[in-house]
Amino acid sequence: MPFADVNEIFSYDEALQIETWTGLHYDTIIFDSDIDSWKTNQLFGQRVFTKKNLAVITEDTNGNRFGGFVSSPIAKRNFYTEDPGAFMFSLRSNGRLEGMCRFPIFEGEKGRAFELYDDGQDYLFAFGNEMSIWVEDKKTMAWCDQHWYNYGGRLNCLSGSHFPTRFTPKNFVVAQFV
């Protein structure tokens, strides 16, 4: 496992946990918001389009670390990617959850697992209706909403807030697994 490029937002233990959840092995970081421009979605889109087995890991300004995993190839823009194996996860919840948690997509929602938006749009991506990040007038906005993935009745599992309350992403990475 090449952990040389694992950074502060994505630790060795977190990579191992995602490996356990997926049965895949960490390969590389394909997008890092601390290095790569995300004020528009052009570079982000180029990095993730056609890729599969992607984990998007977000850290917000409150120290929560969470994200989503999509195993199917991202084959279209502005359309949802179908993926029965998609899941959301919490890696650090500031005490709301015990340890790292995985939240699978509901069977009836597998057709709406992930959406990559077109170049020039304000939105970067969305995991179902659960987590969206977009840039509008050079201001980053994001929210979490719990509808299409199974959280076992728990609330505010990802960012500690629920739409319409927004969270502020500190940074995020996209890791590819093989």
Describe the structure.
It is a single chain. It is built from 2 helices and 12 strands, in the order αβαβββββββββββ. It is mostly beta strands and 178 residues long. The protein has one domain. Strands 1-12-2-3-5-6 form a 6-stranded antiparallel β-sheet. Strands 4-7-8-9-10-11 form a 6-stranded antiparallel β-sheet, with helices on one face. The protein starts with 11 loop residues before the first helix and ends with a strand. The relative contact order is 0.23. The model has no long low-confidence stretch (mean pLDDT 84).
Count of discrete structural domains: 1
Individual helix count: 2
The overall strand count is 12
First-to-last CA distance: 10 Å
> Percent of residues in helical segments?
10-25%
Query: Strand share of the residues?
Result: 35-45%
Query: Major beta sheet, specifics?
Result: 6 strands, antiparallel
The neighbouring-strand order within the major sheet is: 1-12-2-3-5-6
- Strand-and-helix sequence, N→C? HEHEEEEEEEEEEE
Quick description:
With 178 residues, this protein is mainly beta. The chain has 2 helices and 12 strands, in the order αβαβββββββββββ.
Comma- or semicolon-separated keywords:
mainly beta; 178 residues; six-stranded antiparallel sheet
Topology:
Elements (H helix, E strand, L loop, with lengths): L11 H11 L3 E7 L9 H7 L5 E7 L4 E6 L9 E2 L5 E6 L8 E4 L9 E3 L6 E5 L3 E6 L2 E6 L21 E2 L1 E9 L1
Antiparallel strand pairs: 1-12, 2-3, 2-12, 3-5, 4-7, 5-6, 7-8, 8-9, 9-10, 10-11
